[in-house]
Design a protein that fits this description.
Shape: globular
Bound molecules: 2-aminohexanedioic acid
Helix content: 25-40%
Number of strands: 21
Structural class: alpha/beta
Length: about 500
């Protein structure tokens, strides 16, 4: 019998238990790694297009179960139904995309320096990949990691967030029912210790982590101390939306509401700073505030709900603490700014959609990730000042600019130091076939999704074939010409 169990609960009604799981001990992690390694020895021999067919089948099963999965996401992660459905849809799209990759180029050919010789690259699995995933995209993020890892021929041990373990189990069940071989994908549950046991495990060759910067740093140093291992980190954001005076303010209002308050502000891509030109700040903020006040907070499974709870009371209190600090530093609450109770959502951790004005660049709220429904308005007087504000963040995930001036838009695309830039659209909503990830403290150079999504899960091998039938000496400076040392 396991020593300890934990339960995930419905964030809208914490008395409602969604699922209970044992906390994995180091020996459970050991067993999971051993199962993954055994299954992977067989899986790596399966031709890539055949692996791809199984990934495609995963997408089909997920599509069949989409409504049930979306309901589970809404109940366990607190995402409103349409967003929960979008979360599952990202996984379905990812399956289609990754399956297509199985019939795509798997490397490159190169001409060689010597005659009758060719060079090419090919991809090989890394072995067992350890994954640690958050609760805010509890189906999509496991799919971004698991599908490419499987296509590349790996085994998987995944530890989902303790807030959304059932979503991950349901996702992995769908994969097994679609034909992913037994033992290839293993879910272990628990908190930091279980994650740490994966990171430390000598049988795990690569770690893919999505979460906070402090945890990411610990994961990376442990993976190096016990490795080196391949480590890909997808960390936080402090995403800004720049609004120039010529922008379509109705479009900006809608974008700001969706970007800041969608998923209750709990996306790493959420719009957290509204960097607005002072000529249009009053008009824009009034419009955003009016619309924010009309958003309906409630049970995420109720189709009338616009904004669900935040994940738990601790998170709500942390968000509230940051708002209070901002006010103490001189910011003004234009709307929201406090926890709220909601009918038929007993004990749910709700926080009012909040707009703060008078935020200055040096305020804590302007620099640290909030991960909650709080939009800080920072006024600027020029395009260059806006770019400075966007780029002074330690993070570099996503940014947006609203303008009708193509030159300004293109200058923003060039000058903003983030992994993702939107023009006339909010900072959320990345599509799975483009690389996803960020600069500076947001990550360590890897990208998920898109073609580059395979990189973190495969080793590249360079192959040289010499068909001259004789020893051709490379890197011996015997080529004809002046460089060979003609002294005359
Ligand atoms: C995240 O919040 O960690 O771009 C991922 C977006 C989503 C993914 C967010 N497709 O907003």
């Amino acid at each position: 019998m396991p020593d300890r169990t934990f339960a995930s609960v419905n964030p809208a009604r914490p008395a409602e238990v969604i699922a209970e799981y044992p906390v994995a001990s180091p020996s459970d992690v050991d067993a999971a790694v051993a199962r993954a390694a055994t299954a992977q020895r067989e899986w790596r021999t399966v031709p890539v297009p055949a692996r791809a067919e199984i990934v495609a089948a995963c997408g089909t099963v997920l599509a069949q179960r989409k409504d049930d999965l979306a309901r589970l996401v809404a109940r366990e992660a607190g995402k409103v139904l349409v967003e929960a459905g979008g979360d599952v849809q990202e996984a379905i799209d990812m399956a289609a995309y990754v399956a297509g990759q199985g019939r795509n180029a798997w490397g490159e050919t190169h001409p060689c320096e010597l005659p009758d010789k060719i060079g090419f690259t090919t991809r090989h699995p890394v072995g067992v990949v350890g994954m640690i995933t958050p609760w805010n995209f509890p189906v999509a993020i496991p799919s971004w990691k698991i599908f490419p890892a499987l296509l590349a021929g790996n085994g998987v041990v995944i530890k989902p967030s303790e807030h959304a373990p059932a979503c991950c189990e349901a996702f992995v069940d769908a994969c097994r029912d679609a034909g992913v071989p037994d033992g290839l994908v293993n879910v272990v549950h628990g908190f930091g210790e279980a994650g740490g046991a994966i990171v430390d495990h000598p049988g795990v060759r690569a770690i893919s982590f999505t979460g906070s910067v402090p945890t990411g740093r610990r994961v990376a140093s442990a993976a190096m101390a016990n490795g080196p291992k391949l480590v890909s980190l997808e960390l936080g954001g402090k995403n800004a939306m720049v609004v120039m005076p010529d922008a379509d303010l109705e479009l900006v209002t809608e974008g700001a509401l969706f970007g800041a308050f969608g998923t209750s502000g709990q996306r790493c891509t959420s719009t957290s700073r509204l960097v607005v030109h002072r000529d249009v700040a009053d008009e824009l903020v009034d419009a955003v505030v009016q619309r924010a006040q009309k958003l309906v907070l409630g049970d995420p499974t109720d189709p009338a709900t616009d904004v669900g709870p935040v994940i738990d009371a601790a998170s709500r209190d942390r968000i509230d603490g940051m708002v209070r600090d901002a006010v103490a530093e001189g910011a003004v609450v234009a709307t929201g700014g406090k926890p709220v109770t909601v009918e038929r959502a007993e004990g749910g951790a709700f926080y009012e959609p909040t707009v703060l004005r008078g935020v200055r660049r040096e305020h804590r709220i302007a620099r640290e990730e909030v991960f909650g429904p709080v939009l800080s308005v920072i006024e600027i007087g020029s395009f260059d000042e806006a770019i400075d504000v966007v780029n002074e963040s330690e993070y570099g995930l996503s940014a947006a600019i609203y303008t009708r001036d193509i030159n300004l838009a293109m200058r923003a695309v060039h000058q903003i130091d983030t992994g993702i830039v939107y023009v006339n659209a909010p900072t959320i909503g990345a599509e799975i076939h483009l690389p996803f990830g960020g600069n500076k403290h947001t990550g360590n150079g890897f990208r998920e999704a898109g073609k580059r999504g395979l990189e973190q899960f495969s080793e590249v091998k360079s192959v040289y074939i010499d068909f001259s039938g004789r020893l051709q000496k490379a890197q011996i400076d015997n080529r004809p010409g002046p460089a060979a040392g003609d002294a005359s």
